[in-house]
Amino acid sequence: MAVRQNTIWENFLSPMVRFLIDEEKWRRYAASIDWEKQSDRFRRSDIIVPSYYSNQNFHGIEGGYLNPEAAVSYDPVTQYLLPPNEIVVRQALIDTVKVHPRRILDLGCGTGSTTLMLKQAFPQAEVIGLDLSPYMLVRAEDKAESAGLEILWRHGNAEKTNFPDVAFDLVTASLLFHELPSTASQAVLQESFRLLVSGGQVLILDGNQKTLRQLEWLNDIFEEPYIREYAAGNLDAIMDAAGFEAVQTQDVWWINQVTSGIKPIPGTDVTIQKKVRRYTPTSIDSTIDNNDLEGLGSPVFGITA
Ligand SMILES: C[S@@+](CC[C@H](N)C(=O)[O-])C[C@H]1O[C@@H](n2cnc3c(N)ncnc32)[C@H](O)[C@@H]1O
């Protein structure tokens, strides 16, 4: 695997993380899987991979997520990159869910760490994880099977999922937006709006834009080509522009943030949205009366795992 040798990641952090993780264990894991055969089960020929995705490296891995190495190294590395710890940060997204989700779509699900937590938090809901990398989906499926969780994994582009309109109560994305150019971020939020029922919720967990703007040097570390663009932007504003209401961003331990938006319910006044603004994320409430998802069979849209 080719890596760039001149990043802070390669020179400094990568050796540190290598020291912390059991590399031999992950090598054995990587060797135990026929990645091409397994990824072919997910790969869809109708997916057009955008150039911003296929051209980017990730943590020094050439080809980024279109390299099985990314699927193997992602979890062992990520556990050290989300202070105070990965579970606390991901839980902040779960704690911000305001709806009673019957169907959840996790965009850019990667190896499924947040997707699994969503299924655990909402076991009655149908949960779908979508990602552009079939290799990440292989790893995600493996984790779900080990945890005994039934989740559907779908190869696709979060900008254009091909799912029908108003098919989900909850659309989430964790650690996806800092990897997107701003035009793609806008497209993903527009797509989320189309997919959600009225009263449905979108939740974006990612790096804290204010903090990232103050810590320019941090943006050089991880070979993330769009992180500056992400840091310079304002998720609240693009969520507003996509049509969401009650848009709100909370800091998650200074370095991350979770942004929530609600698809307006036609004909209702702003009272519901005001209630949402005052919401304290401790338990699920029934503030929002979702539309039903009538007409959409289950498992959804003929996807079989
Ligand atoms: C940093 S990882 C985050 C993975 C996971 N959500 C998590 O929280 O650990 C970003 C993921 O987004 C996926 N991705 C990037 N652009 C995408 C797009 N346009 N559509 C779908 N997935 C995308 C990548 O393949 C990768 O798995």
TrEMBL record:
GO MF annotation, one: methyltransferase activity
A Pfam family per the record: Methyltransf_25
Methyltransferase domain location: 104-200
A GO BP entry: methylation
Listed InterPro entries: Methyltransf_25, Methyltransf_Superfamily, SAM-dependent_MTases_sf
UniProt KW RNA-binding keyword: no
Alphabetized UniProt keyword annotations: Methyltransferase, Transferase
The name this protein goes by in its record: Class I SAM-dependent methyltransferase
